[in-house]
Amino acid sequence: MESTRNAMSSSLPQRSLRFVGPLVLFRDGVALQLPPSRKLRALLAYLSLAPHPVSRERLCTLLWDVPNDPRGELRWCLSKLRALLDDPSRPRVRTAADRVWLDLDGCEIDTTHLLDSARAGLDQLDLAALLTLVASCDGDFLEGVAFDHHVEFEHWLAGRRSEFRSLHIDLLAEVARRTLVGTAEGLSAARHWIDLAPCDARGHERFLLELLHRGMIEDCARHLERTEKAFIREGVDFAPVREAWDRIRRTLAMPALPRTDGPAASPPPQSQPTGPRRASIAVMPFRELREGSSGPSELGNAVTHDVISRLARLRSLFIISRGSVFALAEEQLSVQEIGRRLNVDYVATGFIERRQDVVLVAVEIAEAATSWIIWTERLEASVGQHLDFLDAIGNGIVSSIAAEIENAERNRALLKPPDSLDAWEAYHRGLWHMYRFTAEENARAAAFFRRSMAQDPTFSRAYAGLSFTHWQSAFQRWGDRGIEARQALETAGHSLLVDDQNPAAHWSMGRALWLMGEHEEAVRELERSVDLSPNFALGHYALAFVHCQTGDPALAIASSDHSRLLSPYDPLLFGMLGTRAMALVRLGAFQEAAGWAVKAAARPNAHVHILAIAAHCLALAGRIEEARALVARIRRQNPYYRGDDLLDTFHFAADEKARYRGAASLIGLAG
């Protein structure tokens, strides 16, 4: 059975077992010749990992067919194991009351060492220990052993292989995190990572960093092309890899010299207001392409007006007014000149082209100081009803502009010394830490939000950010739930006092009220959030979050879908997918729920509750082995996690709790 490794008496020969890769048994460092029997090897592996003594009946059912005298064959296998494992003064193959177990205290067992290390936390190991563990994972668990007609054992074996393969991936990810880009260890970890998990965007991001560090630009391009084709074949969203590559290029291309203002002789038509800084953008009038030339048009002007209005309602950026950008558009200036004249950080430009009943819109955002393009996209919509067309195009443009600028500002803040950050930069540095979703990073985020508030007490979103960190601490049980919930509510109140027209302030208040059990009030605040800004994706997601538990599940699905439409690459995408899955569970659509929950669990920053949602949904859908593989991942993050931890965190009705408890009992999460 599983046990910790105790020191053996020097009078006993040292034994070690290697189950990852081909099975090998060593005595005093010498490999012993094992009988060729696959069932003996399977029996040794099963008993070595069994947490309790196993009945002979259970072993016979697992490994033998009834007509073949299973008990006789079991006795033969046990006699062979005794010859291999027993010492004259210490029998290791033990039997009593028709039960069988192995006494492996003092033996070196690779799987026990791996599992003990995972339970203790990989972050507790030094790099040398991590590399040793990685080297021990070379191969599949019980490699070469297969039983085509023993379904229960095959399920057990598949689950264990998935568990150790997943642990191998976690080890490689931890090695990659610890090693500098450009080192041999970093490259090796990245390469093995994508070999084991070819659809893990994090592994591809690190591999691309390693290639780019070595100046292998063409190899990066080839890798992206191959990977995109592979993702498409597997039906996996390639966007996270493309997004990571764009982020890498933007970060490495960021200029080292500070931005300088142009000559003072030509004042801007409109300058930013005095006071704390915000990122600023000028949305230039969209021009329409006609017969090889471009020019202003009513449709282009309508799109421009709509985008400016929607961005202003988000209240996250300083937006240049319509009058200024339309006046300046007639001069046909460069991006850098527009930036200098209007004193803005970013410039958005675009073109419109009509093709029968379809309108194509090309948009790009550039840094005003350098003219570097940070985002470009082509959108299309059917003309149909004029207002519907404007709504579809406006949603796509506004959500992308807000998300890309926030991402650029987060990356810029991350590269600056913490002591040099102003209120705006400290807020965005806080966002970067907040979206890591660990207790340590959450605390760092809170510190940056407090710094932002101290420098600018009028910055509503900094209070909203701090409220979210308290919400996370309560939700994840990183602190006292009652205290953290009250602090989330208090800081959300400050956010509203500073700016009650900011959708983020009502969003933070809605989430805090949910924590306090005030569901109807929470929904009202969240609805106010999206009324103020229909493009505020987090508001729609939060509505889905509340409705999927105690509200209207159909509304939850609609809100989840709309939040993903507005922000398809959102850092909280795992939550948007997870709320849809929980809503589908309430509607009894278990198979569909499992599909969405698995997508949520596959997101790189998915926390343990998301994994638990996926495991329960898979169990409800009858996909037990997949659910158990997820339970193994949960155990590595929190060995004591149980189904009741999920139910205590969310606010389900009694009948839903019973449904989840039934699922938990099928996959070892009961209690």
UniProtKB/TrEMBL annotation:
Protein name: Adenylate cyclase
Gene Ontology molecular function: DNA binding
Classification via SMART domains: BTAD (SM01043), TPR (SM00028)
PANTHER family: TRANSCRIPTIONAL REGULATOR REDD-RELATED
Keyword Thylakoid tagged: no
Residue span(s) of domain Bacterial transcriptional activator: 102-249
PROSITE patterns: TPR (PS50005)
Phylogenetic placement of the source organism: Bacteria, Pseudomonadati, Pseudomonadota, Alphaproteobacteria, Hyphomicrobiales
Record's keyword terms, sorted: TPR repeat
GO terms for biological process, alphabetical: regulation of DNA-templated transcription
TPR repeats: 503-536
InterPro entries recorded: AfsR-DnrI-RedD_regulator, BTAD, Sig_transdc_resp-reg_C-effctor, TPR-like_helical_dom_sf, TPR_rpt, WH-like_DNA-bd_sf
